[in-house]
Amino acid sequence: MTVSHRRVMALWIPDWPVHAHLAEFPDTDTDTGTGTESGTDPRADGPGAPVALLASRRVSACSAGARAAGVRVGLKEHEARFRCTDLRLLPHDPEIDARRFEPVLAALEALVPEVEAVRPGLCAVRARGPARYYGGEAEAAAALREAIAGLGFSDARVGVAEGRFAAEQAARSAADDPQVTSPSPGVRLIAAAETAAFLGPLPIARATGSDLGDVLRGLGIHTLGALAALPPSAVQDRFGRAGGVARRLAAGDDPDAGPSLVPRERPQEFGVELAFEPPVDGADPLAFACSAAAERFVADLVGAGLICTEISVQLTDDIGVRHERNWAHPKHFDGADVLNRVRWQAETLPRDADRAGAGVVHVLIAPIRTDRAAHHEPGLWSSDSDPRVHHVLSRVQSLVGHEGVVTAKLTGGRLLRDRRQWVPWGTRASETAAHRRPPDQPWPGSLPPPHPVFVFDPPVQVECVAADESSVSLSEDGDTLTAPPARLRIPTAGVDEPVETWSPPWPLRERWWAGTPPRFRLQLALQNGDAWLLLHQRGSWFAEGRYD
């Protein structure tokens, strides 16, 4: 069988970012939550459900179900919610797209060599070799699609045409489009002689960026065929290199066709696995059994000139339930750090008294984020934290547990106590609930700087009285005080001081739809020089903080 070296097979998984994020966050019900332990089908909801990914408060990708409800890429978040009230929103992380695409590439590389990863969700291979092996392009394309469908992506498509661009457009075409042959579900073939005719009716945006596409449409060029009909030299002179490349693509003369495909470099596997029979019960016995594997895991990375800043630990118990968690490190992992994460995760496994002896039968430790070790060498005037601090804190953490050593992170919120988030040492704030309340977002009613030095959690009840010893309260509209504050009394702190000056009260209203009563803030300066921040709620005054 003779197959042109320009023939390319492109495998495309529609709505790949949605697939990837549903696999990453299988149990997320809110727009910024994080996934929990696995053990459920990551595509239980399916990309056909109304799901959208957000980047900078705009839709960057959406599922077929969301598109059916009117959601489109580029819509603002509130407009997308308005069009589809049951829309499920997730934050878009391009790293998840790439990481979740690795198993797909690995499955393809088990069938055909030299796979080029064009972008997450799309890859290409030369058609000549697979066509010879499987007996034809249609048979080879069907084999590739079947392999990916076996991973759970039944909507995957394979397009075969002259050049990578035409092959991608073939994969995106419908089975009944002109010049398209579909010998089996999900497979689209374009004959070499039909390439130009197939590409001609496609919109100009398929081959151009947004800026060049807008210019061409303004000149009345709306299809690839109209662009291909222009003289090559004129397009090159008028629109530069980008216009010349777009014109070649539109004419079916793909500059990235054939031998110029760049196969990806297959990543080295650094994960380590252990199987136990009988099951290992208990965190300490499991950590002891994994000690050699943890050292080997780090040694393999060091041998490749890498360090690891985030790992995945998967523990599978004797009834097949998998408990998976990602662990981050403030610097990079060594063997003891990996072993501590295994121990801490084992301590959180659910215990069932009726089973009395259940344990772990399989352990998988795999790197999530790696970097070149040379990038983390300390400089002559290094500004990193003292390694002795890290050593001591990690040692204490190994003795008292993962959440026994914490650091404070500033997060968003309206009350002062809500802005403080305790994060376990070695854990990024993005892995906790703190990342759901970014401090740089607007928080109407929040306190502007400078902030009190002392914050009371919970707030301390106080008495704010007028000159006639009556309690100071707020007017019905909340704009004014019922009387000028004369004294501030805090019985628990022995404070009874006259008030020198005060600020107007300002409201703090949130979740009114849930019945949360309005609250008001008031700043007081006492004659002894102290300044206090008061909070009024449900008819009482509370000290939220004290200025120093």
From TrEMBL:
The yes or no answer to whether the keyword Lipid biosynthesis is present is no
The segment annotated Disordered runs over 24-47, 428-449
Q: Which family does it belong to?
A: Belongs to the DNA polymerase type-Y family.
Record's SUPFAM superfamilies? DNA/RNA polymerases
Keywords from the UniProt entry = DNA damage
- What's the protein called, per UniProt? DNA polymerase Y family protein
Q: Which InterPro entries match?
A: DNA/RNA_pol_sf (IPR043502), Rev_trsase/Diguanyl_cyclase (IPR043128), SulA_CellDiv_inhibitor (IPR050356), UmuC (IPR001126)
**Native species:** Leucobacter tardus
The UmuC domain covers which part of the protein?
Answer: 25-211
Q: Which GO terms describe its biological process?
A: DNA repair
Biased composition, class Pro residues, residue ranges:
440-449
Instruction: Name the Gene3D superfamilies for this protein.
Output: 3.30.70.270, 3.40.1170.60
Which regions are flagged for Low complexity bias?
31-41
